[in-house]
Write a structure and sequence with these properties.
This protein is an alpha+beta fold. It has helices at 9-20, 23-44, 50-75, 136-157, 163-186; strands at residues 2-5, 83-88, 91-95, 100-104, 110-113, 117-122, 125-130. It has 5 helices and 7 strands. A hairpin with a 2-residue loop joins strand 6 (117-122) and strand 7 (125-130). Helix 1 packs across helix 3 (50-75) and helix 2 (23-44) packs parallel to helix 5 (163-186). The N and C termini lie far apart (69 Å).
Length: 188
């Protein structure tokens, strides 16, 4: 099967988020909590706004980190070029305007699938294949090839965070915000 596509900024953000795993869900929440703590300290003690600058800055960075990473990749020229890939039982032949690459299935260590993307991992990097490049039959065929050649490694790698862990993170985050507010109140 043959696919032709261009990667978008949205593709990059989704791929970076999927690649980073659970951390990308926790980081913005922690950033929001830091920002809330900074705003809370301003409400509690408006006479010392300097106490809120660092947590607010770190919180904003954590909230927008994926978007900034994607922008950096765009600046390095990772978007805009049309990619052509021929996918078969022997592997993937991919090309763009400056390179031609043949990937055997053994070159990949695992794969992951998000709502809009397939990610194929190699040592230290990954290739992005948007689902919009495939018709529904080709997407199923591609998924079958991925499962056939990389399925066991991918299943071994996939780990989910339990709801108990999410609750723990939320409780610790709220405790952090409340402790920060208490410290500001007691420092007066």
């Amino acid at each position: 099967m043959k696919v032709v596509y261009k990667l978008s900024e949205k593709d990059l953000r989704e791929a970076l988020g999927k690649n980073a795993g659970w951390w990308t869900k926790v980081t913005p929440v922690a950033g929001i909590l830091l920002l809330a703590g900074a705003l809370g300290s301003l409400i509690v003690d408006p006479g010392h706004p300097a106490l809120a600058i660092v947590p607010a800055g770190v919180g904003l960075f954590m909230i927008f980190m994926l978007r900034m990473q994607a922008r950096q990749m765009i600046k390095r020229g990772m978007l805009g070029d049309e990619i052509r890939a021929e996918i078969s039982d022997s592997g993937i032949d991919a090309s763009n305007s400056v390179a031609n690459t043949k990937f055997l299935w053994g070159a990949f260590t695992r794969y992951a699938e998000s709502k809009n993307l397939f990610l194929l991992y190699q040592q230290g990097t990954f290739n992005i294949y948007p689902k919009r490049a495939f018709n529904s039959e080709d997407a199923d065929t591609f998924r079958s090839l991925l499962e056939q050649y990389l399925g066991s490694a991918s299943k071994a790698y996939n780990r989910k965070i339990s709801p108990k862990t999410w609750i723990f993170f939320a409780v610790v985050g709220m405790a952090f915000v409340l402790a920060a507010i208490a410290i500001v109140r007691n420092s007066r």
